[in-house]
Amino acid sequence: MQAEKWVARKNVPITQFDIPNSELDKLDIKKFSSADLEWGDFVTKGRKGTLNHNHDAVSGPMLANPSDAKRGKVHKAIGLQFVILQKKAFNLFNRFKKFNKTGKNCS
């Protein structure tokens, strides 16, 4: 599992969220199902600081080679990530936080 590998490398907790789809549907979530051209453009602009959007969150592949991508090389994707960008999304996720990898309640 990707999150467990991250915990092992970074020594950070895994937090679980149990959010009803009806609540998630209230957010503007930009979803990338693959590392396509649109994703590459979005990532490139984000890395350059020229990205302009109003999404509450973004879901999609992680950039595996950020240094190379900044220099214009081909983007490589690994795993998936979900990025919370707006207070509205943060508040929703905070409301439905369950527990972390240590088993402690996150509330």
TrEMBL record:
<protein>
    <submittedName>
        <fullName>DUF3990 domain-containing protein</fullName>
    </submittedName>
</protein>
<dbReference type="InterPro" id="IPR025051">
    <property type="entry name" value="DUF3990"/>
</dbReference>
<dbReference type="Pfam" id="PF13151">
    <property type="entry name" value="DUF3990"/>
</dbReference>
